């Protein structure tokens, strides 16, 4: 991304593995920090940074449906009050409720399990932000389709009503 759009990125691979959460911002991003998430197998973490007046958490959660929901809640609790985003590979099917957050983003499949079964496991949850547009992009070098969202700050007072 920095080669295409400038800015700065940071990737935090999972221990002993190539994949893991990453974060990129065109400009004005704080130094990312790693937030450990509970896991019984591969150690998981969220990458958190501030940009444009909002906190962003990038995640690559476990595969078990109960575990990934627990990790998503832990990531949401790591974000202080105010506008926030949690996005990434949630590895979950079905609904998820995170207090104060609402799910935005494309409803299209973002991954094909075993190359056949279409699933929407790459997700985005926001607090205090509006989503003006969202879509799943064509798959590149990953086995996932990246999601692209156009987020904007909500007018003062509207943040309470958006959750």
Textual characterization of the structure:
The protein is 13% helix and 39% strand. It has three helices and twelve strands. It has helices at residues 2-5, 65-77, 158-162; strands at residues 8-11, 22-25, 33-37, 44-51, 54-60, 84-89, 102-104, 111-113, 117-119, 122-127, 129-136, 147-153. The protein has a six-stranded mixed beta sheet with strand order 3-4-5-6-10-7. It has a two-stranded antiparallel sheet with strand order 1-2. Strands 8-9 form a two-stranded antiparallel sheet. The mean pLDDT is 88.
Alpha carbon gap, first and last residue? 31 Å
| Cα-atom radius of gyration | 15 Å
Helix content: 10-25%
Strand content: 35-45%
Shape: globular
User: Which residue ranges are poorly predicted, with pLDDT under 50 across at least 5 consecutive positions?
Assistant: none
Largest sheet: 6 strands, mixed
Number of contiguous helices = 3
Instruction: Work out the number of β strands.
Output: 12
Specify the structural class: mainly beta
User: SSE string, helix = H, strand = E?
Assistant: HEEEEEHEEEEEEEH
Strand order of the largest sheet: 3-4-5-6-10-7
Mean pLDDT: 88
């Amino acid at each position: 991304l920095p080669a295409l759009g400038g800015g700065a990125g940071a990737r935090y691979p999972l221990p002993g593995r190539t994949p893991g959460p990453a974060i990129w911002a065109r400009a004005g991003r704080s130094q990312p920090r790693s937030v450990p998430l509970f896991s019984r197998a591969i150690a998981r973490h969220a990458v958190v940074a501030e940009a444009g007046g909002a906190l962003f958490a990038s995640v690559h959660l476990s595969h078990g449906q109960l575990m990934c929901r627990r990790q998503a809640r832990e990531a949401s609790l790591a974000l202080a009050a105010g506008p926030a985003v949690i996005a990434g590979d949630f590895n979950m099917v079905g609904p998820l409720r995170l207090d104060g957050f609402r799910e935005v983003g494309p409803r299209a499949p973002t991954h094909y399990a075993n190359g056949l079964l279409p699933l929407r496991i790459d997700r985005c949850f926001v607090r205090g932000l509006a989503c003006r547009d969202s879509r799943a992009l064509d798959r590149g070098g990953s086995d996932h389709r990246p999601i692209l969202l156009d987020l904007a700050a909500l007018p003062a007072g509207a943040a309470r009503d958006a959750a």
